[in-house]
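Researcher: Going back to the complex we discussed earlier. I've cleaned up the inputs and rechecked each line, so this should be the final set. Can you rerun the prediction on the complete assembly and write out the structure?
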Amino acid sequence: MSGTPRYRFAPSPTGYFHVGGARTALYNWILALQNDGVFVLRIEDTDESRNEPQWTQGIIDALAWIGIDGTDTHFEGPYFQSAYAANQVAAAEKLFASGHAYYCDLTSEQIHDRAKIAGRPGYDGFSRDRGLTAGPGRSLRFRVPAGVTVVHDEVRGAVEFDNTTIEDFVLLRGNGKPVFVLANVVDDITMNITHVVRAEEHLPNTPKQQMIWAALGATPPSWAHVPLLVNEQRKKLSKRRDKVALEQYRDEGVVAEAMVNYLMTLGWAPTGDTEIVDFATIVKDFKLSSVNHSSAFFDIKKLNAFNGEYLRQMPVEAFSAACEPWLTSDKAPWPADRFDRGVFLRIAPHVQTRVAVLSEVPAMVDFLFLADVVIDAAAFDKAFSAEWARPLTQSIHDRFVDVEWNHDALKIAVEAIGAASDVKLGKLQAPLRVATTGRSVGPPLFESLEVLGRNETLRRIDAALARAG
RNA sequence: GCCCCCAUCGUCUAGAGGCCUAGGACACCACCCUUUCAAGGUGGCGGCACGGGUUCGAAUCCCGUUGGGGGUGCCA
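Model: Rerun complete. Updated structure for the full complex:
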């Protein structure tokens, strides 16, 4: 046994990268970092019907996004399980040669029929002592020994399995291809994996894997099964039902730091009264033994709250830079050449406290970059429904012609007009806001107008007055 | 069906027999601040699933019940 702990993350490339996978990867990565170990990435691409090469790059990109850097010295891989097929078959043959496995010529239908007649599900060990050798259509099954298999799990403690409840499971398919349980173990042995940290759904097949390790003469790794991430119905998060794609959250403007921090509060908690902690603290404090045993609901609301917190903590320049993908691409509702970074930077401090995810930003500043502001008709009608709305907005317009153009002066001017007619600023700003920004809510009005500029402000007020008739 | 895991506010969690009148966070509600909306501040609502033990003492240990979940493929 070498002294370097070797962890691994072994996803299959069957779709977008799952947030549950992200958390499992994070656990392994953090453990590798804090123990000066190695994080091995192994792509389990043996299910030819479901694999797509594009997903492999997606996994690598997603890992990089959450800080699991493929160029870091603690990172090793990616390895591809399919490349080790011959090695896995060789291991299976070794198991056959040593009597730990035997061939069986029964078809799935025959097994099913026998089970039905016997009244107990599963394979009944029919070919255990028939002395069959390898042949077309024959599968290789593991000869599960009598006794009890105890899995020592770093999260759950000792878990006992009575071997009579474990059927003689398949190692090699009728077509000669290895199945998951074999491939997984043989690769782990080949790659000198010492610690297997994965989701709880794998706990039931762990005794099988442990038996294979032993039968192959290897020392089983340290196991740890971490709780599942579930949806609101408390069912395992699924790609079909739930919003689980890491890429999707990234595209909506969740920042990686918030995602990582949030993911780490599921099933584990940093010490102290705050859950918002930096990655270095997490790496320092994380312990498998303090991971919870029960499943955790992936709460998008709380994720967004964390994200808002992270966004607000950023220096405004960093926030502004983080916003750019949403402001300069086709995600933005205005032509790319109308975006002005300097203008955005001026309004950014006010946007920063008002968004939870970055994708909300464009709608908050579109009035600055759109040639013609898009008026929300309902908001407009409501704002201009008051008796005073039209005349006072006209007065504001007239005053704005020569008022000093900064937010304080603008505010004082509007306030004065309101005071003369006994209309509070809170109400009076409504028609002005819709006229100039198209909406009833947004960043502080006078700051917005200061950035918008006098000419455009006057032009929009004119247009609104015309519209209000 | 069988095997395995789990059980603290709605949710994520703190809690390793007395520090618990059970702490924090998200959500929710109220108030304050306020140029809308936020942000921020203050306060509030709200939980140890149930039943038995063990113990001077149990959210914490044991057993059972109930409930939830995972697995049970020649998928990974």
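Model: Worth noting: DSSP finds 19 helices and twelve strands in chain A.
Researcher: Good, that matches what I expected from the previous run.
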